[in-house]
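Review form for a predicted model. The reviewer records the input and the model, then writes brief findings.
Reviewer: anonymous (R2)
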Amino acid sequence: MSTEARSTRSIARPPSIPPRRWLLVAGLALLAILMVFPLYWMVVSALTPGGQSQSSQFYLWPEAPTLANFTEVFTSQPVARWIWNSVLISVVTTAISVVVSLGAGYALAKFRFAGRGMLYAAFMLTIMIPIQVTIVPSFLVVARIGLVDSPWAVILPTAFDVVGIFIARQFMLGVPDALIEAARVDGAGEFRAFFSVVLPTCGPLVGVLVILAFMARWNDFLWPMVVLQGAESLTVPVGLSTLTNNPAFASPWGAVMAVATVTVLPILVVFLVFQKQFVQGISSTGIK
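Model under review:
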């Protein structure tokens, strides 16, 4: 074989993958399986009559999968109403939270006024206060204005998100001041400068705020459990807690897993829609 043929053959040979890379891939694959398995187990239990708790034998897929759990729980319980309540509260609260976070983050990052540092520090201190401390005075305020057992009792107290304001401020610090000053020189007011110059650069930030706010409100349990009292007014997490001791089911776990399977879908949809902006926004705010 000539030297030229041997060199051509060596060039065409694909590079070998080092064993360390294979170990890394295998470890990441195992970690992914461990993280996805609870979701898979939830779906399998939802398709098993009574859930897997009815059988002492472990299996990865039921012999006769059925939608009986879905049919039973949706016909005997107001699950559709719970889902609607959760969607309404999550969407409205997310919209208000994103608007408030964008405005507050822009003001704290770009405006110079007396007490700005103290105001920002006060915002950060509220993160350290657990909800158990504020739940009683918050409930008294909501009760005084007559909002108990209504969606607004959940929406208004949770629309102000300090974490969202912090992320928005960190992102706004990266917006060049020269762009805003140029807009002001051209005669644009503060609102025009914000909506025409700053807001178009905030796509990744909006993705982060939407995902974090929607997930927090959709999964919120303690505050809705306190202020929502009627069976038709409950959100999905609170409604799920009522199924475990419900005498309508011989074994409640099939019904619980069926409702949980349905209620995971909105979170997956929101994350898939905003995942690109979420990754860009997290990297832009300097949060690793």
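Findings: The mean pLDDT is 82.
Further findings: The two ends are 54 Å apart (CA to CA).
Recommendation: see findings above.
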